[in-house]
Design a protein that fits this description.
- By secondary structure, this protein is mainly beta.
- 8% of the residues lie in helices and 41% in strands.
- Strands 5, 6, 7, 28, 29, 30, 31, 32, 33, 34, 35, 36 and 37 form a 13-stranded antiparallel beta sheet that branches. The chain has a seven-stranded antiparallel beta sheet with strand order 15-16-17-18-27-23-24. Strands 12-13-14-19-26-25 form a six-stranded antiparallel beta sheet.
- The chain is elongated and about 145 Å long.
- The N and C termini lie far apart (101 Å).
């Protein structure tokens, strides 16, 4: 597989990881492997944030945040609930991700390790790698990367399109290519060198270039001792063991794995090595614009060190990782080889069979911050048992590192403590020897939920063989299916609407004049259309004991009300609310709203003055005092003497127990004035007599709106000694003040 390099925008890099942010264009640089774009558990070890973060050289790039996903999910969920059928969230669909709203209010996300669908126009179609003619080129029918294969007649082998729209080319150094023979997903260019065919294979992640060496003589030829692949548009470097980096002309880059080779023993083909052995590394060197492989020395070394003869043809694959394949394995027999991809191979290896020992890995984006994970299953397929007996393998959560690391890197990180493996999640034996492909599902609910709670955007699972000699092959295609729910938001604007009052605090509770109180909040939900609100009432003296609770039932988001009845006079209560969608409680409660039940009117206030004489139009100081819960006073002056019983309070001075208290600070209405009170502390007002026999009438009201009868104060000394007439000698007349 000649190397193809996926070109990934630098904004999508973090700590050496290359990822495409959802929705970016599919891009790649061709060397040969195409670049694809990824559109009963046992004891569970808890996952910490530090374990999620992983090695400083790893760590996932920021994928799409949860907030922008909420609106399209909510719209799809409303349609699903209304129709009773699942609804796909089109805005969140990619080649490797499918999000579906379910009628019961859950969301389901299916995450695949390799592309399963491709967008063509406004439609998503299944990946189809069969080649078709397009102009002078051969292209896959439906691919996640724009790649095209040569029609022959030149040294040009393949091209891939970058994000900027430029085609980056891979060319041979062994001469003009013949016209290919095309069958299915493979274009075969025969005899590109004596005894060597070239196969270009369209894969789910792009393409692979594989040289088929048909004889020992061909393997020892000078052409294969210095097999060169030229790249136009990318600069090659080797940043670390087992990898090659390619930086395209537009600045995009990726990490690629080193070239690999294998023979035909055990039924090996150009797609896949046979039996239990993984591909072996190929000796190679890099220049800025080309990769040079020494196939002959690699083959000679294998022949010297192996007890069995090689079986021809051999297959040589300059294997490059696009960063878009999220399944790989490591092997102790070739500890510096990366197996992120391996030509057209669809196989991962796991388990033990001397000298081979492999661990396999899967990685997925999560993008579920703030969600409640209800269920998570990793679906894999065991392709075969390569070495019997069919032993056990176990699944684990693993600290996140850049995909495609080698066995030596894995072991070094383990020994340094940088790589953490959880305890066994599940152990499975799988299918027996000779069985065909067998689905195996792995329950990962607790692990995925714990990882989501840390805020991590990626999850990394490792599988290893338990004691005993057994080796299994698994498909590189795996799917993590996560069902989750977005819990309702904290209700907002808690208020009392009947009687109307502003929520009080523990120190200063509100007062209401009713033994039945209706309260209200505004309830929202990231998944609108199916949200409940629960209201709890307690006594302020026992906040941990609910005395009444009410639920609104599942409704569309909006205002929610509850009525608490049978309340006791003089008791201080508190209430709060929390959302629920019947799968999970909301993310939090409202603050406590305190109130005291007070249905008793205050006694008539004490009204007094120290004035010993009165003059019409001349204000006098009058002191008003009342009970400790008095909120204010209503007063007015009548041009008549003090009488009993007292008159009714004027209509515009009547206080209501069902609506909020009026503003008492200097308030003047048609017939009365208002004065605020601080409980029993006396306040002073300054009324003036309207005529010789005038009376000041005063009514007190409390915080709950309960109002006393009026009481009067004569603004004259006696009936026989009325207030003195106003002085009009100065040319003006006093204006009376009530």
């Amino acid at each position: 597989m000649a190397p193809v390099v996926s070109v990934i925008p630098r904004e999508a890099e973090l700590g050496g990881r290359m990822r495409l942010v959802r929705g970016l264009s599919i891009v790649a640089v061709v060397f040969g492997l195409g670049a694809g774009v990824a559109p009963g558990a046992g004891a569970v070890t808890s996952v910490s944030a530090s374990q999620v973060a992983g090695h400083s050289g790893g760590g996932g790039a920021a994928s799409q945040s949860a907030a922008p996903q909420r609106a399209p999910q909510a719209a799809a969920l409303q349609r699903a609930v209304a129709s009773g059928s699942p609804v796909v969230v089109d805005e969140l669909t990619t080649p490797t991700e499918l999000t579906t709203a379910l009628p019961d209010g859950r969301m389901r996300r299916e995450l695949s390790t390799r592309p399963v669908r491709v967008q063509q126009g406004d439609q998503w179609v299944p990946v189809d790698t069969d080649l078709v003619a397009e102009g002078d080129w051969w292209v896959p029918t439906a691919s996640a990367a724009q790649v095209r294969f040569s029609p022959g007649g030149s040294e040009l082998m393949a091209q891939t399109r970058t994000a900027s729209g430029e085609w980056v080319s891979e060319s041979s150094k062994f001469g003009t290519l013949p016209a290919p023979v095309v069958q299915g997903d493979t274009a075969t260019y025969p005899e590109v060198m004596p005894g060597v065919d070239l196969k270009l294979v369209a894969t789910k992640t792009g393409m692979a270039s594989i040289y088929v060496v048909k004889s020992a003589e061909a393997a020892k030829s000078s052409g294969l001792a210095s097999l060169q692949i030229a790249v136009d548009g990318a600069e090659l470097t080797s940043p670390d063991q087992g990898r090659v980096a390619a930086t395209a002309d537009d600045g995009s880059s990726l990490i690629a794995a080193q070239p690999l080779w294998w023979d035909s023993s055990g039924g090996g083909t150009y797609r896949e090595p046979g039996e239990e052995a993984p591909p072996a590394p190929v000796s190679h060197r890099l220049a800025e614009d080309q990769l040079t492989m020494d196939v002959g020395s690699s083959v000679a070394q294998a022949e010297t060190g192996s007890a069995k003869d090689l079986v021809y043809p051999l297959f040589v694959d300059p294997d490059w990782s696009t960063g878009m394949s999220d399944s790989w394995y490591t092997d102790a027999a070739y500890p510096n080889a990366s197996y992120l991809t391996a030509g057209a191979s669809d196989v991962l290896r796991v388990g033990n069979y001397a000298p081979y020992r492999s661990d396999m890995f899967f990685e997925f984006p999560l993008d579920l911050e703030g969600s409640d994970v209800l269920d998570a299953v990793l679906n894999t397929t065991q392709v075969a048992t390569a070495a019997c007996p069919p032993g056990w393998i176990s699944s684990h959560y693993v600290t996140i590192f850049t995909p495609g690391y080698t066995w030596n890197q894995e072991q070094a990180w383990k020994q340094s403590g940088d790589m953490w493996w959880s305890g066994t999640i599940e152990s499975k034996q799988g299918a027996g020897c000779g069985a065909g492909p067998t689905p195996l599902g792995w329950t990962m609910t607790d692990e995925v939920a714990a990882i989501v709670d840390t805020g991590a955007e990626w999850v990394h699972f490792g599988f290893t063989g338990e004691d005993g000699m057994s080796r299994k092959h698994f498909s590189r295609d795996a799917t993590l299916i996560v069902e989750y729910n977005n819990p309702p938001d904290v209700p907002t604007d808690p208020r009392m609407i009947s009687p109307a009052a502003v929520c009080g605090t523990a120190a200063v509770p509100a007062a209401v004049s009713a033994t039945s109180v209706t309260v209200q909040v505004d309830q929202t939900d990231p998944d609108p259309g199916n949200v409940d609100t629960n209201f709890d009432l307690v006594k302020a003296s026992k906040l941990n004991k609910v005395v009444q609770e009410h639920a609104s039932g599942l409704l569309a988001q909006g205002p929610r009300s509850a009525t608490f009845t049978g309340l006791t006079e003089g008791v201080t209560y508190a209430w709060r609310a929390i959302g629920s969608d019947w799968m999970a409680d909301g993310v939090g409660y409202t603050p406590w709203c305190y109130f005291t039940v007070d249905t008793t009117s205050p006694p008539v206030p004490t009204v007094s003055t120290t004035a010993s004489s009165f003059t019409v139009g001349a204000p006098v100081n009058v002191s008003l005092s009342g009970a400790s819960d008095v909120a204010g006073y209503v007063y007015w002056v009548a041009p008549s003497k003090l009488t009993s019983p007292a008159p009714a309070v004027p209509v515009d001075g009547t206080v209501s127990t069902t609506v909020a208290r009026p503003d008492c600070n200097g308030r003047v209405t048609a017939n009365v004035r208002w004065a605020c009170s601080a409980g029993a502390t006396a306040v002073t007002v300054m009324p003036a007599p309207l005529d010789g026999l005038s009376t000041l009438w005063v009514s007190a009201y409390d915080k709950a709106g309960n109002q006393s009868a009026a009481t009067g104060l004569a603004l004259y000394s006696s009936v026989s000694n009325p207030a003195m007439a106003a002085n009009v000698d100065a040319g003006h007349e006093w204006q009376s003040r009530r």
